[in-house]
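Researcher: Let's try something more involved. This one mixes different molecule types, so please make sure each is placed in the same coordinate frame as the others.
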Amino acid sequence: MDVLDIIKPENQVFCKTKLMTDTPLSYCPGCGHGTAHNLTMEVIDEMGIAEDTIGVAPVGCSVLAYDFMNIDMTQAAHGRAPAVATAISRCWPEKYVFTYQGDGDLAAIGTAETIHACNRGENIVIIFVNNGIYGMTGGQMAPTTLEGMKSSTSPYGREIATMGSPLKITELIANLPGVYYVTRQAVHTHKHARKAKKAIRKAFENIKLKKGISFVEIVSNCNSGWKMTPNDANIWMEENMFPYFQLGDIKVDGKLK
Amino acid sequence: MKGNEALAEAAIRCGADAYFGYPITPQTEVIEYLMTEQPEKRTGMVVLQAESELAAINMVYGAASTGKRVMTSSSSPGISLKLEGISYLAGAELPAVIVNVVRGGPGLGTIQPSQADYFQSVKGGGHGDYKLYVLAPSSVQEMSDFVEDAFDIAFKYRAPVLILSDGLIGQMMEKVNLKDQKERMSNEELIEKYGSWATTGKTKNRERNIITSLDLQSEKMEARVHRLMKKYEQMEKEDLRYERILCDDAEYLIVAYGSSARISQKAVELAREKGIKVGLLRPITLFPFPKKQLFELADQVKGILSVELNMGQMVEDVRLSVEFKVPVEHFGRTGGIIHTPEEILEALEQKIIK
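Model: All components are placed in one shared frame. Result:
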């Protein structure tokens, strides 16, 4: 049987949504960003809200998210996406406003903007892709880099005594009253991607209901930054990232789990 | 009204859509006034106290990217924090109004008036090849009038505009004629006017709009910078503003802006009472700068004194403008001390007339 015989519409489970452009992704093969982009755009497409959605792109690997997402987007300064989204949402309260940020952007340089947008309970979605490293600049230590994990700025491994502990910003913001929904997901398998999509859907539904902040963390890989093959990176992520950044809902309908 | 209050009221009346700010002396009355007035009820204008100047300027960036008329205000150390965002606004070609009610520096400095942020305002301040259109009010009336003027320029050029005031003008109380209330632009009208670029939600009949200052291809980045430079050239041609006071028969010239211009005007009167023919050229826009006007006046006067509340910043632009045709000297007090008309006249006599 030829491969084209298998790729028939009735056999197709996953495909690129039309809300993704045809621009080739700038991400490394095996990176989770492409899947996270696609799931977000699928949700927006399925909800029929593309005309009313405004996205905010970060600085980092996903700085060019606007090249791939076929919706109106504003690219924010490093870490400031929640402030940018705050203003858009305040000026356009009927719109679906979301930020798409990495761990350096959201949990280091943008910590203040993240915490205060969450504390004000802005009616936005924050999609937070955490791969424990600065990917764009070539694999430096991030606030989420695990203990002992090597990066170009922690070449002997992250040492807690001098570099601090990996920051669980998601648990931190879950404790704020303005935050309505907090969940941690992954996208490296079909099963995980399906769950992540449900979470993203729930988050966008919350905007419609004007519930305040919905925060979806996606623990992802960075095979280039981690210096592994894509498959090894996924295995390493399951064995090392997931025990520290545990998957699952952290706060649902305004109540901590 | 206080200058800061007149500015805040003018923002409401000219139909501004949003204000994002953070308290800092001596401009805190702006956000206090807005919070008390509740423009959300009067016109639907959004007012929000941000967690920092960084957040405030990036809120401005967000609102501006959707075509809204948005303003922020701060004072010197706060403006330093906002410079990253101002550079992004310039790079992404977004219209916005930023107000600096200047206090003395460097560092935490003093809360007293100063004009020591001239360089920061007209020479870029933030990173990259950009300029700000800079309006310098010298009265409470101008604090009020310049808000709408600033928005007009910001939208004419899709560029950030700075109102460079200082603690004296901001805190001073004067009578002021307020303009009538204008209606805020409806979302439908906004989409019709700015839908070609603003991120208001991609409709089926157009391509997606993207607001960014990033061009990874050097050729594209160079083209973007050239586009900015064209705007600045057009500003110099079409939107230069200045005031000539008793310049026609002047033998000596004072150049001063903002509060220094107010005080220098008195010094001109004192000089004329003594029979010294002194004129005052007041740049109202600091960029564009009245270069040609100064160049021409240099053929008429014997010397020029640049009077500033700093240690000599604008004097460099005055010298460049007159191309060393006549002596140009600087007089200024700093640290929050305001010069008196008598001091200015004395400086003119000692440094220029001799």
